[in-house]
Amino acid sequence: MGVEYPDSNCRSSCDDDDSEAALHPSNDDNDNVAPRFRLRRLARVQDDASAAFLPGAGGAMSVYVTMHRIRRLVIAAIDDTYTLEELRAPLIDHQVVRPLVERLYNPEDPAIVYCLVANRVQFLRPNSREAIHQGVNESRATLCELLATRVLRRFHEDHPGRAGLLLLANILVSGFDPCDAAPESIRSRRPQWAIQERGGHERKLTALELAIISESKWLIKSPACELVVDAVYKGVVVYTPLSFVDFLPDHYKYHPVSLYEPRRAAILNHRRLIVPQLRNVVELMHFIVLLLLYMLTVAQYGFGGDLSGVHIYEITFNVFATGWVLEQFAAVVEHGWEVHAQNLWSFLDATFVAIYAAYGLVRALELLIADDAYYALPVLCTAAPVLLTRIAFTVMPDNIVFIALHAMMRDFTRLTFIAIWCFAGFVVGLLFLARTSGEGSLNESVTWATICKWLLWIWFGLDGTGIERAADFHLILGPTLIITFAFLGNTLFLTILVAILTNTFSKIISNEAAEIQFRRAVLTFQGVKSDAIFSYPPPFNVLALMVMLPLKFLVGPVAFHHINVAVIRIINAPILLLIGLWERRRVWARRSKPGSRSWRYFPGLSPHGDIQIVFSSEPPPEVLDALEKMDALHEVAGTTTGERMPQSPKDFRGHASSVRRRRTSNSSSVRRFDA
Q1: pTM of the model
Q2: What is the pLDDT of residues 265-313, one digit of tens each?
Q3: Which of 246, 283, 268 is closest to 545 using CA atoms?
Q4: Which of 126, 150, 219, 391 is most buried as measured by Cβ atoms within 10 A of its Cβ?
Q5: Same domain, 451 and 510
Q6: pLDDT tens, residue by residue, 462-492
Q7: Interatomic CA distance for residues 604 and 599, integer angstroms
Q8: Per the structure, how many domains does the chain have?
Q9: If residue 551 lies in a helix (H) or strand (E), which one and from where to where?
């Protein structure tokens, strides 16, 4: 759990797989087919916005104008369905994708990636009026994601080092208003719900949040986005997140996106509680405490304990569980269920909350009505599989098996509800058949529960009582309904279920790296909290909601901020002190030994350590000169373009920038759209 602090001369690799596909044509037959794009129409696309919305010399346009500009260009570019592989093919890449990147990329406009992902969200949104164009819109959404990836890579290439990391972080996690500089007629149509004051940062969204909502896994897997997500996860990049509603809002101070320096921060820095890497550890400790209290409560009542009255373990468990449920509910409200559902263990938390709510209701009725009843304990026991499974999901969030299980559970739940809804007709039909034409005792004793039990046993192949009694419903119609149900349930439904789950699992396994990085991005984005309620550990968050929230309306924002920070530091003093000392010691150790390697690398302990030593540093100048005399790189890879290729990895970034500048100066981006 180490926090890495980038040096001023750091350089990150910006290679991407799509560049290889563009530079090295494949031998597929599809590459020789002319792309079905309306290039001539795209050449005639002009920005008809008024002069007030146009940028100045080298400036950036408003977010509203940029979003509509991108939408017009993408709609004009694609007129048919394409996959990501087809859009990355060399021919289409050179004729459409790269010219669009050249046209849209503006070093002074950090909102361009946000606008591209916002258009992807809009293209993926179901629209009944454009149902026949849904496939084309999905291709346009894919093109928006590909353009956002390329533009973000351009920012990464042109801005290296700490300044580049700060710029990339502003692009991905800074908030943008989609109605920025929009006409008054558009702004007046916005929903007028009550929004908490955030000092001008209301109604703003981030590019990373839109990428998570639209499942832009190719964009999130890119090296530039991965660099930012890793920096935010480790606490190198800090900022005040944007949320919709806070339970305990404290927005007196807004911290913009910045790089964290431990030596200049306070020793009890309460803002380190929202660092995702540190917060995951704290939340894991909270869940372990919840699990231990649960075990003690069930063991006290279940192993020969006294079932009457309320015991100390149950009281402690209920108090802590109430605070934990409040924290989960605040996490859902923080960014919405659509983002929270992307978390691996969100369905487990929702299941435990439902079980705990049922237990609390039954337990309250027991204490109010009958002291000697103990119906709530069996309800509480059903939470054990959920809690123990949740531990495994929390400890191994990057395990591809758990990621696939999360996706398959979503498909399985959806298909199961559909099956229950459809098969309910068999229960109703057999019940009416038994009442109208049932023979003997069947007409009097059969109930819908009995019919459900017989059908369920047939479904799982456990018992054939329902088939044996089918003729008692009706001599002909009874066996017909039962046999039809057996065929549909055991054959059709199970075949469809296996096919869907197999398809989901194969898709996730085939794109394992992107799936893992996507889940890591979700975990990072959800880990940064703006609500002050998350700084209070359970069950102190319940007390904070009862005491601090009324206090907010009695004092001013400045006084409330100081009181809130003081209380948070007092409650979390041991954790904050440990975090502060650990981070400072790590930074001092790195600064005192700038040339030392991390303890993770010991080439001498590996039989392949000599290979690592050979490639660990650049060859000396005399070796490079000898290699250049033997194999001149500009003759090997630059003969087709007449350009001299770089001789060392450090020169590749500057070489790519110079090539782009020459391409831009030789021909305008508008001419590239001509057929």
Answers
A1: 0.73
A2: 788 888 888 889 898 899 999 999 999 999 998 887 765 555 566 678 8
A3: 246
A4: 219
A5: yes
A6: 777 778 888 878 788 888 888 888 888 878 8
A7: 12
A8: 4
A9: helix 540-552
